[in-house]
Amino acid sequence: MNYFYIETSITDRSVVLSLHGELDMETRQHLKKVISDLRQLSEHDLLVLDCKHMCYISCDGINTLLSLASSCQARGVQVILCQLQPKVQDVLELSGSTDKLKIVPTLEDAQQAI
Fold it and tell me: Which residues does UniProt call coiled coil (predicted)?
């Protein structure tokens, strides 16, 4: 099994999930479960995915992020990715996903987005 875990922090304005490790076919269910279990998400209008420690993403991981962003937007929650590692940024760009996902350089930029 691939290495992946999530740290959660909640601020006045946002829920921040810090993603660690590899987001792929084996680990995407963990991200989905954390999101579905997050009751505080309905009380906030911003979900920040801090990707500073996410070292890899597969096509399945990208599809999970796109699906997550779409379902959150339908509930009035904006999803922003920040602090992408260069390899992860490259994969998202090559897949054309950067046009569909909001990405900012820093956590501070993400939290100021609303």
Answer: none
